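User: two proteins, same treatment. go.

Assistant:
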Amino acid sequence: MSFFETERLIIRNWCQSDLPYYIELNRNEEVRKYFPDVLSKERSELIFDIMQNEIESTKLGLFAVTLKDGSFIGFIGSLFMQEDTFIPYSPFYEIGWRLLPEYWGKGYATEGAQGLLKYMQKFNISYAYAYTSVHNHESLNVIKKLNMEKLTTFHHPVYRNGEQVLFRRALHDTY
């Protein structure tokens, strides 16, 4: 089921044929550079099922993303971040993206995230948050293009290069 489209992308729920691509995405050292580790096939399968169920029940989550020609490129979406003693301002709705490297630098993450922010306005959510490593210049560029406000930097002991930067954007006019 497709939830929204952009000029070049289809944002939809996962289907079983996406699982090998999702496993590949999570095994890729370059993709996982700023995460604690790469994911095993078993961990990816478990998370895959959780993501499908979350989208089916809430209509929000980490959505599969394809080009309009059907090529799988990764995921873009939001998830509710529970209160975390290491992450300021939590709990909140976090937005994020993860694309296969061959699709980096083409504007897909920005385009999909812009569509996601518009889609999230349908829900009773005041703000979308994003955080990433202070060294992840690619994601920081996407966040900048989304006009997100920098809130703070913080150290998260689970992440490689533990220093993270947190951003926020209102989903509705605040005046």
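Protein 2:
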Amino acid sequence: MASKPLRIAPEPSAIKIFGVILTLTTLDLHSSSIGAKGVQHLCDALRINTTLTTLLLDLNKIGAQGAQHLGDALRINTTLTTLNFEGNDEIGDGEVQHLDDALRNNRVIR
């Protein structure tokens, strides 16, 4: 049976449970406007999640803080293989560098 992406409302408490309870392999949060706070909770889950392989965060207004959280989580997470965060234009050069460094150290993301 093929896995279908799960789309949810941008509720931080809902995002927080993904690392502990659910065994999702794909999470599609495209255009959910989760913002920096939502990304922070998501990244807390990514640090301990061992099943999520695809994360779609495009067009979410994650901002500079969200990019920092994402970069920190990517240094730890070793199961995520596909990540899309395009269209988050409010990410500055410093955050882009932080994400670039994290992705260079992460050997599994394509």
